[in-house]
Every structure is written in structure tokens, then in C-alpha cells.
Inverse folding.
């Protein structure tokens, strides 16, 4: 029982990183812009947060600057895909390579600063932590970023579904021509929500380096979580609560992959993952295989309509053009 609770609690912590990245990509895609550069923007956020926190001895300043840095990088994709109307998939992949290269060059040698980098606090919520099962999983010795994530989810859902700006966001992602005819700035709104996606990706990266896995920075800091976040958007059907569920489940699976390889015995039997390391590689592959499967399923036109894909997602808007 304790083992299960540890896995679930660690899944919530690890899933918080995926949650922030998924919510940011949800806003971007709701506006009609697909951004595959989430992984690179997360790495920029992780590097910036680590570097600025070490320089200022204040993790909150590092967190803020990391968000702004990733948001600024996202505008490269916005300019190419919105203003120049280039293919969003190609632009997103190029952004990912660019952002990854920048973060690794500027982040060279940052691991040596591990002793001077302050981290974000973790604490237990007194009353809620006493709840059976749920208390130990969600409210006991979790990072402040986990608790902030709990607040973000309902706020994001309410914003998208119950506010006028959220209605404009959905209109731009579904029928940009109709939104434009009503005076809604399609181009400006898409720029803004791509920027929001960058901010959230930077927040996700900063959460890794300052809270979830503090103390080092390198090419494996994000470990492909940005790509999983892109798949989770489709899995969640662009719905923040579903995104939270998917993120926490994937977080638990990522932790399970690590812990299940440790004991020699599993449920009283010889643990095949302990004696054969190749099985462990197979387990690590499963989240990414799921991401690829989700993207393939979500790319089919019939499935796009069934799962509620924004109608204008991935399509450049040209004023005066018939259709979307």
C-alpha cells in the first residue's frame, strides 16, 4: 500500500510538469496554432530558471524570467506560422531544434552551480493531508508548484468555457473568418496565445530545474516530456481537467517505470525487469509510443471531428479567403 501511495504522490509531482506544458499547448491550439516546439521551450525555461536563480539567489525571480524567456522564444514560431503563414509543423520542429541548441549552449556547465541554486519550497497542507489516501497523494510534502497546478486547472477551464475572452479564443480556433468579421483580432489573439503557451512551457521547465528534479541541468532535463504534452492535449480533447488527469497518470507511469526495475522480487515472483535491463528500455518507450499513437489517431479527419479538434488548427488564416 505504501509503495502505491509513493508512486501516486510522485506521479502528481512529475505530472505537474506535464500539466503546465499541456495547458499551455491547449491554449495555443485552441487559437488554431499547433506548436511542436514545446520540448525546446521547456528546456529554455529550465536553463533560464537554473541560471537566474543561481545569480539572484531567488528561485521566484528565476521562475518569472524563465517564463518570459520561453514566451519570447515562442514568438519566433508565431511570426513564422501566423505572419509568414508557413507550415506550422515544420516551424514547430525548427523551433524545437533552435531552442534546444540555445539552451544547451547557454547552459553549459550549469551543473557545477548545484550547491548555490535555491529551490522552490515544499510543504504539507495540515488538514487536507489527513484525508485517507488522497491526503498522502495530493497534499503531503508536495512542491508549491504542485499546489499552484491544482488552482490553474479550474481557472483554465473557467476561462475557456465561461468568459468572453475564452469565447473569442474558441471562435478564433474554430471559425477565424467569422471571428474576424465580428471585429475579433485573429492575428493578435493567435500571437497572444502562442505567447501564453510559451509562458506555460517555460513554467514547466522551471518546475523541473527548481522543484521536481533540482540540482542539475543537461540535455536530458526535460527527457521528452514536451512531446508527451503535445500528445496529452489530444488525449484530453483540449479540456483542462482531462489534461490534469492524463498528466498525473503519465507522471505515475514514468515513476513506476523507474521503481519497478529496483526489487529482485515482484509480487513474490522473480522480477523480469530487474534481471533483464532490455525490458526496462521497453517500459521507457511506452509513453512515447502512446504519444505517437495519439498523434496518428488525431491526424485523421474523421477522428478530428469526433474528438473535437479545433477546426482551424494548423491552418493559416488569410483574410478574405473563403472557408475558415
Amino acid at each position: 500500500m505504501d509503495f502505491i501511495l509513493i508512486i501516486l504522490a510522485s506521479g502528481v509531482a512529475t505530472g505537474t510538469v506535464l500539466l503546465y506544458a499541456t495547458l499551455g499547448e491547449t491554449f495555443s491550439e485552441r487559437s488554431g496554432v499547433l506548436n511542436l516546439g514545446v520540448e525546446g521551450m521547456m528546456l529554455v525555461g529550465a536553463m533560464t530558471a537554473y541560471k537566474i536563480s543561481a545569480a539572484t539567489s531567488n528561485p521566484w525571480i528565476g521562475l518569472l524570467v524563465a517564463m518570459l524567456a520561453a514566451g519570447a522564444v515562442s514568438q519566433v514560431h508565431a511570426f513564422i506560422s501566423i505572419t509568414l503563414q508557413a507550415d506550422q509543423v515544420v516551424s514547430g520542429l525548427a523551433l524545437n531544434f533552435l531552442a534546444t541548441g540555445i539552451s544547451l549552449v547557454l547552459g553549459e556547465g550549469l551543473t557545477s552551480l548545484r550547491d548555490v541554486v535555491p529551490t522552490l519550497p515544499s510543504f504539507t497542507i495540515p488538514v487536507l493531508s489527513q484525508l485517507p489516501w488522497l491526503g498522502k497523494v495530493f497534499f503531503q510534502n508536495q512542491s508549491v508548484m504542485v499546489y499552484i497546478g491544482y488552482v490553474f486547472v479550474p481557472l483554465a477551464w473557467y476561462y475557456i468555457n465561461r468568459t468572453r475572452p475564452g469565447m473569442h479564443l474558441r471562435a478564433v480556433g474554430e471559425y477565424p473568418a467569422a471571428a474576424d468579421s465580428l471585429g475579433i483580432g485573429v492575428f493578435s489573439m493567435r500571437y497572444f496565445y502562442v505567447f501564453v503557451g510559451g509562458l506555460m512551457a517555460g513554467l514547466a521547465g522551471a518546475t523541473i530545474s527548481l522543484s521536481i528534479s533540482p540540482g542539475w541541468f543537461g540535455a536530458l532535463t526535460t527527457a521528452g516530456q514536451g512531446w508527451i504534452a503535445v500528445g496529452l492535449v489530444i488525449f484530453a480533447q483540449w479540456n483542462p481537467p482531462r489534461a490534469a488527469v492524463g498528466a498525473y497518470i503519465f507522471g505515475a507511469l514514468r515513476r513506476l517505470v523507474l521503481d519497478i526495475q529496483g526489487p529482485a522480487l515482484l509480487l513474490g515472483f522473480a522480477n523480469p525487469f530487474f534481471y533483464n535491463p532490455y525490458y526496462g528500455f521497453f517500459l521507457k518507450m511506452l509513453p512515447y509510443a502512446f504519444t505517437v499513437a495519439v498523434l496518428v489517431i488525431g491526424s485523421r479527419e474523421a477522428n478530428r471531428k469526433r474528438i473535437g479538434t479545433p477546426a482551424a488548427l494548423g491552418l493559416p488564416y488569410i483574410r478574405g479567403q473563403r472557408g475558415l
Remarks:
- DSSP finds 14 helices and four strands in the chain.
- The radius of gyration is 20 Å.
- The chain has one domain: 2-122+132-305.
